[in-house]
TrEMBL record:
InterPro entries associated with the record: FAIM1 (IPR010695), FAIM1_dom_sf (IPR038513)
Name of the protein in its database record: Fas apoptotic inhibitory molecule 1
PANTHER family on file: FAS APOPTOTIC INHIBITORY MOLECULE 1, FAS APOPTOTIC INHIBITORY MOLECULE FAIM
GO biological process: apoptotic process; negative regulation of extrinsic apoptotic signaling pathway via death domain receptors
Organism listed in the record: Baryphthengus martii (Rufous motmot)
Coiled coil (UniProt feature): none
Taxon lineage: Eukaryota, Metazoa, Chordata, Craniata, Vertebrata
Keyword NADP: no
Keywords associated with the record: Apoptosis, Cytoplasm
Length: 182
């Protein structure tokens, strides 16, 4: 394994199927560009004469589009920015806070990361899209699924306030799990 001597940027991106690490090597003398996602080489280009530009690839089980932009700042200094689905990483993560809920919990010594995609009501657990069963209840809806031998339920209840919208709560073994902030 060659040492990453030209490593210029590292990002962590939280997606529904997990948190992914993106690493970028840029050899400004050789023109080399290498992109790693979760330690696996996705793109390798040697001897690029153009030192600025972009590299586009996909991340995770959902094949989310990612682009690294390489811009010259001054002289031989470069700036590297990551875009996810065409938005800056910051904008993408801000938007994700509105469209998803994430819970981190430990069951029987195993850590789980549960993500609800509010627009589709898809539920992900540790990188797997879960089989769910939805039902209407008196005060809203319940989405049922299992993690191991634990029964889980995401309750969706109206907050009664237009600005807040719907409140989603994860209940595992009759216990409410606090939402995680990633």
């Amino acid at each position: 394994l060659e040492k990453m001597t030209d490593l210029v940027a590292v990002w962590e991106v939280a997606l529904s199927d997990g948190v992914h690490k993106i690493e970028f090597e840029h050899g400004t003398t050789s023109g080399k560009r290498v992109v790693y996602v979760d330690g696996k080489e996705e793109i390798r280009k040697e001897w690029m004469f153009k030192l600025v530009g972009k590299e586009t690839f996909t991340v995770g089980a959902t094949k989310t589009k990612a682009t690294i932009n390489i811009d010259a700042v001054s002289g031989f200094a470069y700036e590297y920015t990551l875009e996810i689905n065409g938005k800056s990483l910051k904008k993408y993560m801000e938007n994700r806070l509105k469209t998803t809920n994430t819970w981190i919990l430990s069951l029987g010594g195993t850590d789980y990361r549960v993500v609800l995609e509010k627009d589709t009501m898809d539920v992900w657990c540790n990188g797997q899209k879960m089989e769910t069963a939805g039902e209407f209840v008196e005060d809203g809806t319940e989405t049922h699924f299992s993690v191991g031998d634990h029964s889980c339920c995401i309750k969706a209840v109206s907050s009664g306030k237009r600005k807040e919208g719907i409140i989603h709560t994860l209940i595992v073994n009759d216990r409410e799990i606090p939402e995680a902030v990633e």
